[in-house]
Design a protein that fits this description.
- By secondary structure, this protein is α/β, with parallel strands linked by helices.
- The protein folds into three domains: 106 residues, Nucleic acid-binding proteins (OB fold (Dihydrolipoamide Acetyltransferase, E2P), Beta Barrel); 165 residues, 3-Layer(aba) Sandwich (Rossmann fold), CATH 3.40.50.300; 89 residues, Ribonucleotide Reductase Protein R1, domain 1 (Orthogonal Bundle), CATH 1.10.40.
- The strands form three sheets. The chain has a six-stranded mixed beta sheet, with helices on both faces. The chain has a five-stranded mixed barrel with strand order 2-3-4-6-5.
- α3 packs across α4, α3 packs across α7 and α10 packs across α11.
- The longest helix has 24 residues.
- The chain is globular.
- About 7% of the residues have low confidence.
């Protein structure tokens, strides 16, 4: 069982709704009421939270009718399949759904009728589209409060990857928290890497931990609130499952060794699964993401690179591309050292990526981008003519 006790149930001693411990609140209750109003007459619906998505079915947690919770398998209804016209609309781990009892009674698999509105969703551009001819959103985890960006000390540590994950976390509505694992591999307890991580995402808390011996875990636990949901994000071998097991006090998810030559790991976690910790906090473990492409997020890119966005506000032209126009405050910051070269290059890449996605999915944005390019071209010609 992922979060239930040895009997397969979870109960509350004070008689509270057991769903409250899974994050159930008025927001989702209102969403369920709206679904019930649109459901066929006589269809009894109950709320459930998606613990894991499988091929053709889901594992959900729902009330058991005896004051506790039970895990059960659920399959999609015909209505759900018809309503979910995109992958992003399909239930994801962490979603709340409207559940109906199976047609053959309580013993039959339950049926998911609808996905309730999400409070947040960690999304990326769907993987496997190297030619960018199929731009689609993939929801990695839903209804999350905090995103733990896990980066292991060693060869795989990358500030640029942290910037990318932080941008996605900001776009999702979750708070990013950077966790440097395997701090025992460093000679300074991870201090130098924490400084690098802080530069990559200045507004996010950054902690160094060594999960096997418990170093740094108390600092991490203060971000894990009962009833709140976090997600672990990072590449394979970064130590996400080891960290999860250390926080839980037992092995919830399998772990594996990393390869010596590049310090990367295999996908020991094969699905996105919601777990409950002894503290009452919930956490979603995810497989390592080989492709971490943005899903929209121009404003989120600006939030992660705040020093560049602040400089950009002082550029002579409001649509400055920051690549050669006169009066560009960003290029001036590069020249005087107030903006780091590697941050500028990373910001350019992510901003271009976000702008491209915006123009692919928004007709008005596409038109504005074309007009902006024409204005910049005219300015450049006039500038070169008057030199």
């Amino acid at each position: 069982m992922r979060f239930l006790d040895d009997t397969g149930t979870a109960t509350t001693a004070d008689g509270r709704d057991p769903l409250a411990g899974l994050g159930w609140c008025d927001f989702f209750a209102e969403g369920l009421e709206a679904v019930e109003r649109g459901a066929r007459r006589g269809a009894a619906l109950e709320p459930a939270r998606v613990i894991e998505v499988r091929r053709g079915s889901f594992v959900v947690a729902a009330r058991d009718g005896a004051g506790g919770l039970s895990e059960r398998e659920a399959r999609p209804s015909g209505r759900l399949s018809g309503d979910c016209q995109s992958e992003a609309a399909w239930p994801a781990t962490g979603d709340w759904v409207a559940l109906r009892a199976g047609p053959d009674g309580p013993g039959d698999a339950a049926v998911v009728e609808a996905v309730l509105p999400r409070r947040s969703a960690f999304s990326r551009k769907a993987a496997g589209d190297a030619r960018y001819d199929r731009v689609a959103e993939q929801v990695v985890a839903a209804n999350i409060d905090a995103a733990f960006i896990v980066a292991a000390a060693g060869n795989d540590f990358s500030p640029r990857r942290i910037e990318r994950y932080a941008t996605l976390a900001m776009e999702s509505g979750a708070s990013p928290i950077i966790v440097v694992t395997k701090a025992d591999l460093t000679g300074d307890g991870g201090s130098a890497l924490l400084e690098e991580a802080g530069k990559a995402c200045p507004f996010a808390p950054a902690l160094a931990v060594c999960a096997p011996d418990g170093t740094g875990l108390d600092g991490l636990r203060r971000f894990l609130r009962p009833g709140a949901t976090s997600v672990l994000l990072g590449s394979s071998g970064s130590g996400k499952s080891t960290l999860l097991n250390a926080l839980a006090g037992n092995e919830l998810n399998a772990t594996g060794p990393v390869r010596e030559y590049d310090q990367r790991g295999r996908h020991t976690t094969t699905s996105r699964t919601l777990f409950s910790l002894p503290s009452g906090a919930m956490i979603i473990d995810t497989p390592g993401l080989r492709e971490v492409q943005l899903w929209l997020g121009e404003e989120s890119v600006g939030a992660v690179f705040s020093e560049i966005e602040e400089a950009a506000a002082s550029c002579r032209f409001s649509d400055c591309s920051h690549s050669g126009e006169p009066g560009c405050a960003v290029l001036a910051g590069l020249a005087d050292g107030s903006i780091a070269e590697e941050r500028y290059r990373s910001w350019q890449r992510l901003a271009r990526e976000a702008r491209f996605l915006e123009t692919k999915t928004n007709v008005l944005a596409r038109r504005e981008e074309k007009d902006s390019q024409k204005r910049r071209s005219r300015r450049a010609k006039a500038y070169n003519k008057n030199r």
